[in-house]
Amino acid sequence: MSSILIEKKIIFIFKTLKLSIHNYKILIWLIGFQLFRLVLLPFMGLMPQDAYYYLYGQNLSLSYFDHPGMIGYLLRFFTEVFGTSVFVVKFTDFFITSITLLSFYKLASYFLSAHKLARALVLISSTIFISILSFNSTPDVPLLLFWTLSLICLYKAIFENKKWFFILGGIAMGLAFNSKYTALLLQIGLLSFLLFSKKHRKLLISPWLWGAILVSIAVTFPVWYWNYQHDFASFTFQSSKRTESISEFNISPKYFLGAIGHQILLLLPVLFLIFVSFTYKYSKRVLLQFKLPQAKTLFLLAFFIPTFVGFFALTPIYWVKLNWMMPSYITGIILAGMFVSKKFLKVQIYFSIVFHLLVSLQILFYLVPIKSDDTWVGWKELGEEISALKEKKASTFVFSNDNYKTSAALNFFMNEKVYAQNIIGLPALHFDYLEDDLSALKGQNALFIDSDKRFKNEYFLEKANPLLSNYFATVTQLAPIIIKINERERRKFWVFFCTDYQPKK
Questions:
Q1: Residues 344-382: pLDDT tens digits?
Q2: Where are the beta strands (DSSP E) in 298-439?
Q3: Do 427 and 401 form a contact (C-beta atoms < 8 A)?
């Protein structure tokens, strides 16, 4: 293919996206950061979350215990098309996140001038949270995409008076909900905006608006129906069981400071401080001066404040996970593009380069051991060791004692059924809903795997899970499996051989 033909194709793509010559320079930052992440992608190992949501896709269902199934469906599609490998799983996340960035560009162009648009794109491309989404399978990956697409549709419906986009927005909001329950904040943001916007308040009685909400509910029907079939297990898990600790109202500075640290890490210091700055500015303006911002700014705030400020308000009494505020970043970064100066933008880039350099060194050389199962090293080697050990043991199945992490990783790398802690009567997230007939395992032997996150020097048999003896005739401690990386011991797994499994009725 000649260079002229390639150039014509590129021009055609940009014209299709309605991009001007000036826009080309804007996209250099996005492409540059994503190319950097793409280069690192083959060096990323599988994380337990990747394996768990891959397991979703291998056990297709209308929904799942702890989350809706969108991430699992996407992983199933990509692995069916391109084959099952760690790279394909990672590439799925990278590809979806790249589409999210392009969608962000489209959304931001409705609110920002060319140079402010460029700054917003640099801000979002430079963040660590985009790197996390590009490298790690979580429900947030499709959530951020459909969240952004929802806002594009709602903007066109409200500000361009293209009412049919309400219906498209309803579909997008439904797909966002089918990704993660946090998407309920989209409806809250939409209704809040219309309630406070004097100019657009009349839309509250528009059949288009309520048609959009009905469509979104219709799209989410599979999630509701699955929950109906399973005593609303997912909704109970995500609501009442989490709110129990909130109702206790125990103030913990550690929670609050931890949330700040997480947000600084995800956004980098400059962007986080900009978020805090404009949140304070607009809050002061509304609460003290009783003056609302202009409609477009109010629209952006309506999808930022409930998520970012709402979750932050919980941090003194509840451990808010670092990814819960991510949806707010979409409109938050557009707002930041209005305020960030060229000087502070450069500082953000410097921070980003340093942080991503450190991230790349960690990925390539694993310089700092992670004392957690939330790591990408050791799982493949563990699978190989357990497979070799299992060949020597007749009529033996494998299970682990954590909620999902070790079991999910072994499921992926051993390419066979690996059970979770439901084997010994403990809750195991969606492993409890795979409809496994545990009675079929009666009388079989088992290999019990226990991940030693803190790398302890010894593990006495009597310290093993005491429930083991309630389900097995004998429990024998075997030699631990040590995983070395660059000739250093980095992961440790305890192994127990258990005989004559007797499931409880």
A1: 999 999 999 999 999 999 999 999 988 899 999 999 999
A2: 396-400
A3: no
CA distance 110 to 48: 38
Residues 19 and 26: their CA atoms lie apart, in Å, by 10
Checking DSSP bridges between strand 445-451 and strand 396-400, what pairing results, if any? parallel
Q: Return the closest-CA partner of residue 112 out of 352, 300, 269.
A: 300
Residues 6+ apart with CB under 8 A from 222: 62, 63, 69, 178
Question: Could you tell me if 186 and 219 are in contact, meaning their C-beta atoms sit under 8 angstroms apart?
Answer: no
Which region among 243-257, 274-288, 387-401 has the lowest average model confidence (pLDDT)? 243-257
Identify the three-state secondary structure at position 481. strand
pLDDT tens-digit series, residues 441-496: 999 999 999 998 887 766 666 667 788 999 999 999 999 999 998 888 899 999 99
- Residue linked to tokens 């059970």: 419
**Mean pLDDT along residues 149-172:** 97
Residue 245 in tokens: 């600790």
pLDDT score recorded for residue 26: 65
CB 175 within 8 A of CB 131: no
- First-residue to last-residue Cα distance in the chain: 67
Rounded CA separation 51/73 (Å): 13
At 83, phi and psi to the nearest 5?
A: 95, 155
pLDDT at site 250: 77
User: How much is the pLDDT for 397?
Assistant: 96
Alpha-carbon Rg for the chain, nearest whole angstrom, is 25
How far, rounded to the nearest angstrom, does the alpha carbon of residue 142 sit from its chain's CA centroid?
A: 8
Give the span between the Cα atoms of 91 and 135, in whole angstroms: 8
Spell 201-228 as b/e; 16+ CB within 10 A means b: eebeebebbeebbebbeebbeebbebbe
CB contact at 8 A, 474 and 500: yes
Domain ranges of the chain: 3-365, 379-499
**Structure letter (DSSP) for residue 116:** H
pLDDT of residue 146 exceeding 70, the answer is yes
**Residue 2: pLDDT over 70:** no
Cα–Cα distance, 489 to 484 (Å, whole number): 4
| C-alpha to C-alpha distance for 20 and 15, rounded to whole angstroms | 8
Tokens standing for 191? 């209704």
**All residues at 6 or more sequence positions from 233 whose CB lies less than 8 Å from its CB, including other chains:** 65, 227, 433
